Amino acid sequence: MKIDQTVAAIVTGGASGLGRASAEALAAAGARVAIFDVNEAGGQAVAAAIGGLFCKVDITSEDSVVAGFDAARAANGQERILVHCAQISKGGKTVSFNKETGGFKRLSSEDYAFSAQGILIASYRLASIAALGMAGADPLNEDGERGTILLTASAAAQDAQIGQVAYGSLKAGVNGLVLPMARDLMDLGIRVNSIMPGIFATPPMLMAKERAPAIFEGLSKSVPFPKRLGHPEEFASLVLEMVRNSYINGQNFRLDGAIRMPPK
């Protein structure tokens, strides 16, 4: 797919981190970009900087997401690119010792369901709504391509650590969406892929660097090569390639400096 001023894109989580870098890269390539985020101040600032549109969207709410798509399409036209980076989740071990009671407790079904809403269900929600709009659009090229959907999974989808039972299993579920959805949409010319980032220098990690520099340094050294955290711009670079290369479809792409996470 050619990225230029005729193409509209939506990026969730675009107020910071991987989403922000993706929004900036797509805008620099010429796309008309709409940012979905709950961080109104941050999202407005990024949108203003790239000449884009900000829509305050809660990815766990169907109504909020639909309203965001409606606003983005009214301003920019039908999106041909969806990059979904936003997520909400809770951590915790399946069963752990409770110091307050002197017994054991489990990660509640409610907390697991909260993470499912913020990771897996939100991913399906954003992807399916985008696909529904793309399906009625004219083809963009001789291949009959109408759009591309890029979901964000995680290296934890394959080697989640202790305390990541919800996060890891649900990110694995995001990967599991990709191939059947790509097959569902193949006759419509809509591609579906995911990226599994490793440890990236996003705002939470940079805050951790300030609070616990030794731990941050240890994480950096744990990456085989290069021995550092990933730059959000490197994630965005892969986003651009996966959008442009129409032969990438149904893939879960790991971007992690060859790291394999230990149990803890």
From TrEMBL:
InterPro entries in alphabetical order: NAD(P)-bd_dom_sf (IPR036291), SDR_fam (IPR002347)
Key words of the record: Oxidoreductase
Pfam families on file: adh_short_C2
Keyword Cell inner membrane (UniProt): no
Chain segments annotated as transmembrane: none
GO molecular function: oxidoreductase activity
Protein name: 3-hydroxy-2-methylbutyryl-CoA dehydrogenase
Organism: Sphingopyxis lindanitolerans
